Amino acid sequence: MVDLNKIIDYFKHSNIPQNMLNRGKLVLDNFLNPIKILLEQKALPKDAWSDQQIQFFLDVLSQMDTDKDDNASQVGEREARIASNLHIDISGGFCHGVGRSGFLTAPQPKAPGGSIMYEITNYIARDTMRKFGLPNIKAAIISPVATGMSLALALSAFKPQWGKGDPLKKRKVLLPRLDHNSILKSIDFLGLEPKIIEGKLFDDAVRIPIEDIKESLDDECFAIVSFTSFFPPRETDDVKAISKLAREKNLVHIIINAYGVQSPEWMSLIRSAIDAGRVDAIIQSTDKNFLTPVGGALIASPSEDKIEQISQTYAGRASASPVVNFLISMLSMGVNGYNELIEEQKSNHKLLEELLTDFADKIDERVMNIFNPVATAMTLKNIKKKQLYQLGGALYNLRVTGPRVYNPDEKSFGTCIDNYPTPYIVMNAAIGASSTDIKTAVSRLEKAYNQVVH
Amino acid sequence: MVDLNKIIDYFKHSNIPQNMLNRGKLVLDNFLNPIKILLEQKALPKDAWSDQQIQFFLDVLSQMDTDKDDNASQVGEREARIASNLHIDISGGFCHGVGRSGFLTAPQPKAPGGSIMYEITNYIARDTMRKFGLPNIKAAIISPVATGMSLALALSAFKPQWGKGDPLKKRKVLLPRLDHNSILKSIDFLGLEPKIIEGKLFDDAVRIPIEDIKESLDDECFAIVSFTSFFPPRETDDVKAISKLAREKNLVHIIINAYGVQSPEWMSLIRSAIDAGRVDAIIQSTDKNFLTPVGGALIASPSEDKIEQISQTYAGRASASPVVNFLISMLSMGVNGYNELIEEQKSNHKLLEELLTDFADKIDERVMNIFNPVATAMTLKNIKKKQLYQLGGALYNLRVTGPRVYNPDEKSFGTCIDNYPTPYIVMNAAIGASSTDIKTAVSRLEKAYNQVVH
Amino acid sequence: MVDLNKIIDYFKHSNIPQNMLNRGKLVLDNFLNPIKILLEQKALPKDAWSDQQIQFFLDVLSQMDTDKDDNASQVGEREARIASNLHIDISGGFCHGVGRSGFLTAPQPKAPGGSIMYEITNYIARDTMRKFGLPNIKAAIISPVATGMSLALALSAFKPQWGKGDPLKKRKVLLPRLDHNSILKSIDFLGLEPKIIEGKLFDDAVRIPIEDIKESLDDECFAIVSFTSFFPPRETDDVKAISKLAREKNLVHIIINAYGVQSPEWMSLIRSAIDAGRVDAIIQSTDKNFLTPVGGALIASPSEDKIEQISQTYAGRASASPVVNFLISMLSMGVNGYNELIEEQKSNHKLLEELLTDFADKIDERVMNIFNPVATAMTLKNIKKKQLYQLGGALYNLRVTGPRVYNPDEKSFGTCIDNYPTPYIVMNAAIGASSTDIKTAVSRLEKAYNQVVH
Amino acid sequence: MVDLNKIIDYFKHSNIPQNMLNRGKLVLDNFLNPIKILLEQKALPKDAWSDQQIQFFLDVLSQMDTDKDDNASQVGEREARIASNLHIDISGGFCHGVGRSGFLTAPQPKAPGGSIMYEITNYIARDTMRKFGLPNIKAAIISPVATGMSLALALSAFKPQWGKGDPLKKRKVLLPRLDHNSILKSIDFLGLEPKIIEGKLFDDAVRIPIEDIKESLDDECFAIVSFTSFFPPRETDDVKAISKLAREKNLVHIIINAYGVQSPEWMSLIRSAIDAGRVDAIIQSTDKNFLTPVGGALIASPSEDKIEQISQTYAGRASASPVVNFLISMLSMGVNGYNELIEEQKSNHKLLEELLTDFADKIDERVMNIFNPVATAMTLKNIKKKQLYQLGGALYNLRVTGPRVYNPDEKSFGTCIDNYPTPYIVMNAAIGASSTDIKTAVSRLEKAYNQVVH
Question: What is the ipTM score, two decimals?
């Protein structure tokens, strides 16, 4: 095999002078060195990699899989044969996917390169969580399914073993009310039952008091799912108190930290929760936090065993694409790049609050008093119900994507409480958004508002 | 927007003569016409597309999604922002993934192009099943998870609604013994219980008689899972009889047709099963049948409603990659290309049987009498147990991937029966394999055998 | 052929609501509209295109060439057959190259798309020159060879027709001394003879006085080549005066404006030269001005006929790559992008002068008084000759690329004068360089200087 | 720098068993080993490389160039800065191009990787010529311009040095009549004069007798250009006799072997010519012989000095694309692949002759008696002049590209003789054409003929 360190040695006696060759080696070294460091440290790189470096790394690894071996005789029914070379792009070259029948992180004999890729990616996942707020994490895995299905994975892994003669009583999951279909579906998916604890109003904010949770708890519950990032008016759960309760009552405790990694404040709450009580798994979206295409989740845990249990729950193999996506994102940002994005998010959120406050003043509304490091809500109490609907349409036409104009009279699902007192609009200054997004969105909101009202 | 039909009109008064321009239009038309036909017919194309055509089509569709709109103000938490352009490759450009929270085939407002892509793909999936053996299919979906998890999806969609006061009795799934972890895991994943009916020996073959299945049926069973393609000595289930039973006893019936689309014989059995009784869903692997990277499954059904139910079971969004992979594969083969592969598979399987028969004669073994259009088994009764193990290793070293050398004394899991009488080796002539694969595999088997025995 | 305007019509009766489809059309329109505008206006776009847009445009055009026609019977000896798909990348899809035997801009019957591509590119070339300083340009062409060979093309096109009985006297080209091999080689290439007029010292600057040029002129000269951008101490020629002389004396006059498009000052000089007298062609490097890979030149002229003459001089066909490179660059920048780069260049040059002045002060040297909008020179009179050489090496080791450390005692070639009085160093703040390049270069120069001197 | 040999060592203590890791190394080795062999042997590989291998090799080399060094301070005016990443594709990553000012093969200090790439490519060029018929070649270069301009390069390199007092007499080039514009233009390009020796008829063939050439020779001639591959009725020159004459008379002798490498017969003639007399350079098209996009030529010579002289003639730098194209083609074919193509060409030419003979019989025409291993001509004496023209149009409409329908009454240019007696059609079975091309072309010719005649 060619040793790239020695590539210039083959040109010692060529027309090319040695000092030029040395320079070539130096530049190539600059390109390849980050790969070496990654292999040594198995950690999130400090600096961003270029797309060329990432592609090179993926190429080298995927060229270790047996489907690339043109000297092999392939007589299995699954040999990662592909109909088109375009598949190489879509899979990052990892045509065998990840996992063996029923064990996600098991190495695949036909895919040594893919197995290395997945292992490295999971190390990076763990390191990312540690470096961005959760030093008390022990293991992490990139799940090849998104947040909702990953919650199903975790609940399935930790559900009681209902055997013969089992009364099947423990089938309920405590759920501080969170109006998101994916969560409800993931519980339903497993044939479990949610036990929902209603939200209560605290000034503008909707919270689920820990006392109410405690009261709801009965013998049929085996787990509780808590939440950090969600849309106003629903605020973050008191994950520390829930964590203590979980330890005390021997409940499985899963935190849905959907897009919370971007916020050191949310991460700090989770860190305390881990230290104070029981947290089995924390699930976060790869696309919302790490700027990948939709499709994966990062599941982290303070316990290695828990991650292995989840890994062993998955039935069969899975697409490598969501895993590769996470790997690409993290290598393309590095610690420094992600830190910069976090700083930009903070500053954009501040900008969003300021601009919305200014606009609210103009139209006699107000920015609402709800803790959320990403989203901001503004009341819309002075316009007619019909206009609320029109406002949504006007924003759509002005190409503002993502705002939520809400009329609680029409639909309570989404407010996490019945009878929320005021209509409102929510906007996000999420990681990856630009300050231009924020500025044009608020200015278009003003335009849309004026269109609708006048 | 530019009308590609009119592109040459802009050069009417150029130096380029009209007849050259017309030729240019003709050649471009040749390139683009298949796209038009696909959009009109929403069916599997007759002829293969080139990679350039496929890429062009994916590009056009993915350029309809709002993440590509540089005039948009994006203030949602999920806007398909990406950290690297490499993600475009991995996702085929469909960064929003597929599905909305809890409904796979629901159109996504931020992804009109992705929604079109998924709809077209599912039409192609249905058409593929119809054209390759199952004209009685009504709907199909490309599931973004592989066979095992897709079985979980289907079982979850069709499981009884266990409500309050429900005795939770119907939790069992009849399973003609099939020694594959993914299947068992997918049942376990949902907290269900398999009720396994043991295999029986018929000459060399292991079958599960319909009478035994009938006997096993009790009130706790709500479903039965049957199988077509598997490894010898396990033979295909009598899916027609099981289908009748399912109708009679009101059982959910799911057929796992893992790599069965490649064989008209297996497809014909399923067709009869659908006509004769009840089949809720047929699940097939996209990688094993359609030469995609691992990660998706094609779920088909004689009922549109059933597919919609499954589609509504999935919790949250999913990666578009497995869907795009299927689309790429089918466009790159077309009806004709897939037919050619089927013919090649048949001929390769015949070749495998002949070569193994020849070799068996030489070493006083025999090719076993087990129905399987893809795999062939040969006895290995004359070599020592220790040598069986060595034979596997020798094949590995000779780069033969996929053969299974089996010693039933050591492990019965895999034979689908206890006390299978003879050791054996299984090889596959699966779709996409070349005749060279077959020839070198058997010749290396001979070499390995001689190494081990002498 | 598919009309992309109508793509959503095929989904009218689908599950996808009309307003989503409309949004999809809107976003796609946003993507495709620049192509329409380019085809209509045949001018440099105002705004930058994305790489995806550029690639899409190249794909559509190259799919018009007959090598893409799989219904064709190809029985020529040149049919743009390719051994590998990688060639598509390298040629931008234009495998037929550009030109017909001996006429660069002649349309190619087998390459209607390639012919359109070249025509559009040449329009953009003309428009670029007009918008960035030379409104008096009538035609331009992207020559598939770089500056040196393009000068040979122009000289060959305009050389006298030496027929039978011709005394062959007019074989000389007046050349205000410019110490650049490519220029001398291009004259030699044609078997012509340079008549070099020596440089004279004006303070720090080397200029060739118009009087000296006039004196040199004799009957054997048929052309003069003048220069704008070059390295200090050589200054820009008085192109306006030379232009007048050329008109008066009926001399072919070619201006080498190697990297001068980036500077409005140089362009303004050329504009005056065109207005004031005779300029046959102005030649500029595509890589140095427009950030392409090396290999092409933009030849512009105030006369359409002259460009056609040059176009008809080229013997045979040529690679399309240099043409495609220019097209890519200009589309990826647009008027606005190129204007920004010009502003950045100006500001970087100012920065370079400031930083070098500061450093010169410290070491008792001075920035030299030589007009050049890109390059700056600093004296190096206080260090030993041997150290001058070491300084070059030290800069190389510190990875400063591009600076020229000059010792006129050792070699006069490069100073454009004999006996230039002082050693010096030249650095460039060229278009595309970053302010970081400038800052680190000067700081590393200081480091290198200290290494060498102490 | 990472040593790819050791990549698996980083996973010794991972979950991945050592035997899997070893397999990964083995497969990767399989992928990388051809690179090692190429670097060691600097010769045309025996077996074809995959596109992935070629791309990997180009990536590694181009990552040695200083434009890739993000730690460099770049203060030159030419630093291979690029406006778009698409340029990486178009240049193969070699943005510095090839050559230094006036010396094509000189190594470039800023492009060590590009310099290695060019050196390797030229070794492969030499080896290709040696292995496919010319073992007596000493050096070769891939010229970055096509055949016509490459002839200009060679003529320029070998033209007399017209100095002061030189009578400029030796300005003529002997040219056995060859009606191809590129050739005439390349002579004109340099201000030289062709001395054309007329063709004579030998049965159907047009040849230029060596006696006529000898007679034409006078003191003004310094060179002779001879030809192998051309279109019937012009036959190959007697290059051996011309070679002897060149030695005897001290003439520069350049052989235009435009698309002759594909034919062992033509190569054998050249081999004899080299052995028997004087051949300065042999020029062949890269696209016509080696299936690259248009734009390069392979110039070979029995003398290393001659190649160096040509290399030093080129004025300035050049695009690397034509060089990379040749490299890609040869690696993607290897010795074996090119041999297969040669065999296929032979068989296709035989097929073409047979099919044309059959058709000629039907319409009372005949295949003409003209030596040409690629092209075949058939008389068209029985149809009217007007119909000849219509036949060409009909073939164009039937998408037959490349045939030449010739009416010598209308235009003698192309026949290489005045008053050629009969109209004819020429078709080529050139390298890279498929037997389908041949069959459909003749069958469409029949169709077109019938359309026109009836």
Answer: 0.97
